[in-house]
Model the fold of this input.
Amino acid sequence: MAINLEKGQKIDLKKSGGESLTNFCVGVNWGGIEKKGFLGLSKSIQNVDLDLSCILIDGDKKLVDHLYSPLYKLEALQQFGLPKGKLLTADGAMKHTGDDLEGDKGGDDGLDNEIITVDLTRINPAVTQIFFFLNNAGREDFSQIPYAKIRMYEGTPAKVDAVFASYNVSAESQYSGKTSIIMAKLYKIDGGWKFSAIGDPTSDSFLGQTAQKILKAYV
Done:
């Protein structure tokens, strides 16, 4: 049975049989915003462009790799000391499915909109922390978005075999008025990996602000 995480909760990456979870997907799911027309006689769906990103940190608390949308302008990223976006880590251990610009339409389809696949056996040995965060490229805050959930599961971006853990980030009042969330981190301790549900909302309007905040206050 999947673990329903709470803010601040830490878990071992161990399956029910005791074996380590090393290959999995970290996915985020969200919906477009339904808007009703005059007298409620019609409705439309407003696209929501959330961006799932991650940064990889070494033991010296320095940024060593990253995954985020290549659509971000390099000039804006460089103001925060960040390189151009990409969808594959240098070691090939993590891959991003790419930017979803809309969100689900017509309700939750059961699949995540943006997904990062992870193979912990191939992660650069220098990496000790991997932070996952979510930014809204639009202006809506999380109280307006029908749902936003992060989960870890075994399978592929197109098929969920078994959900290991999930965290509903939009179900709490603290996300009202917020446009980005430092969602979670994988961290290495005593040679093994653990997962922590951070769930801290921020008012950042740009990915660079969130990455800088993580580097200054979370590593």
About this structure: The radius of gyration is 17 Å. The chain is about 5% helix and 45% strand.
